[in-house]
Amino acid sequence: MGFQALRGTTDLFADEVERWAAVEQTVRRVARLYGYQELRTPIMEDAALFLRSIGETTDIVQKEMFRFQDRGGHEIVLRPEGTAAVVRAYLEGHLHKTQGFAKLLYLGPMFRAERPQAGRFRQFHQYGVEAIGSSSPWVDVEVIALCLDMLRACGVKSCSLWISSMGSRDDQQRSAQALRERLAPQKATLCKECQTRFDKNVFRVLDCNNPQCHTLAWETTAGQEARGHFASPFLLTQDSQARFDEVRQGLRSLGIAFDDTQVFARGLDYYTHTVFEVRALGLVGKGAVAAGGRYDHLVEELGGPAVGAVGFAAGIERVLMAAGPHVSAAASTRRGLYLAIATPVLLQEGFRLLQQLRERGVSAVMDYDGRSLKAQLREADKQRCRVVAILGEAELKAQAMTLKDLEQGSQETVPLDTFVEAVAQRMESACR
Ligand code: HAM
Fold first, then answer.
1. What's the pLDDT tens digit per position in 215-261?
2. What is the number of the ligand 1 atom nearest to the C-alpha of 311?
3. CATH number of 14-165+257-323
4. Protein residue whose Cα sits closest to atom 1 of ligand 1
5. pLDDT at 335
6. Neighbouring-strand partners of residue 165
7. Pairing relation of β-strands 400-405 and 410-415?
8. Domain boundaries in the chain?
9. Is residue 82 within 6 Å of ligand 1 at its C-beta?
10. Global pTM?
11. Lower Cβ count inside 10 Å, N or C end of the chain?
């Protein structure tokens, strides 16, 4: 009986790895333009970090964390998201003292035990940024601009930005109270889970998957001034409203289009003020390709100073789905050299040349199993090598090699003693 990858996890083979690497390179390049530095945090964290930050009543914490006890009985999780871990590292690495305002990029696998379906995995991968240490609305604007720039640079053409405000913590407390009062008469018709949520964290009713709860939670707010389909359950003070206006004004000044007609809540507890989602055309369901927002209390709640922060994360699988096949043109271009040998006797001489090419920075491969010359040439094509060089007794005798450039369809003979240099120069323009 063979083994299979676990449900919701996937292997990536060569072509896909090329596309992934292209996304990773692009993201790092764009992040540098905006002054973000990469941070790598462990895949395992203390479970309490996520209970405290994402919130005990959220779906992620209640149903989706891969959680286990280590041998010492400590509660460990495979990180379900990056934000809490980045804030922990920001504090543990004393960045709040050495940098104050830190702009951090991260990439890597995240784990959620969700029901696997199109675009939803148990091990998925995010790239994301966190700008920690500022409450300026301009940082919200910068993070959103960066998010869109990265998506564009990764080849995601048709996507739309949705923004909303969840208000300050005070606003949220008043809003929760109001929502609870409005939902109270219908509490018995909410699902079992939402009845608990009603008491513990009523906002979670807003993103219940059960359509009945969802509709009730949003429709009961319709008594207020209508914005779009439903009125906002978030009662914003003038200050919070002004802050949201500043963010929108900033986006407009950069020519960034957005939709603010649909108020929404995000399913993690740490958010305050601006929240946003980028939805891509062609993605199954209403899953976002990237999402984020401001979280002004998380640093303090995890034991640091009272400073604001904002960030986003994008699902790399979804970015690739939304970008289609054109993410990496490099994946289809030919590269490297295939050294075909006419007889196995020449293996040693061939291997010596191969190593010289590699030292010179040229990707080079050959056959070690005595296949026919014809089979080797077929293999060179299959591996999408750019150049084939044939080494036979005749070549050795003449001290010259024939180079076939499969991309340009050309052929030339070069002296054996300048062979490595000639190949290196030919490849210089191509990506090795
Ligand atoms: P999130 O909305 O939970 O936010 O996830 C962000 C993105 O990760 C989603 O928009 C989606 O593209 C991808 N994603 C999430 N779950 C899955 C899954 N099961 N399979 C495939 N892709 C998935 C966060 O994680 C926050 N930490 C974002 C943030 C950063 N907020 C502030 N800073």
1. 888 875 554 444 444 567 899 999 999 999 999 999 999 999 999 99
2. 33
3. 3.30.930.10
4. 291
5. 87
6. 274
7. antiparallel
8. 14-165+257-323, 169-227, 335-430
9. yes
10. 0.89
11. N
Taking the C-alpha atoms of residue 288 and residue 161, their distance in angstroms, rounded to an integer, is: 10
Could you confirm whether domain 335-430 is CATH 3.40.50.800? yes
The CB of 312 under 6 Å from ligand 1? The reply is yes
Is 296 in a helix, a strand, or coil? coil
Q: What is the pLDDT of residue 237?
A: 96
- Ligand 1 atom index nearest CA of 266: 2
d(CA 84, CA 54) in angstroms, rounded, equals 8
- Helix or strand (DSSP H, E) at 401: strand 400-405
Handedness of CA 314, 80, 177, 133 (dihedral sign): negative
Q: Is 80 in the pocket of ligand 1 (CB under 6 A)?
A: no
* Pairing label, strands 123-132, 309-315: antiparallel
pLDDT in tens, 288-315: 999 999 999 999 999 999 999 999 999 9
- Interhelix angle for 14-33 vs 316-323, to 10°? 100
Residue 30 Cβ inside 6 Å of ligand 1? The answer reads: no
- Is the Cα torsion angle 74, 88, 44, 118 positive or negative in sign? positive
Mean pLDDT, residues 81-91 taken together? 98
Ordered DSSP codes for 42-91 = -SEEEHHHHHHHH-TTSHIIIII-EEEE-TT--EEEE-S-SHHHHHHHHH
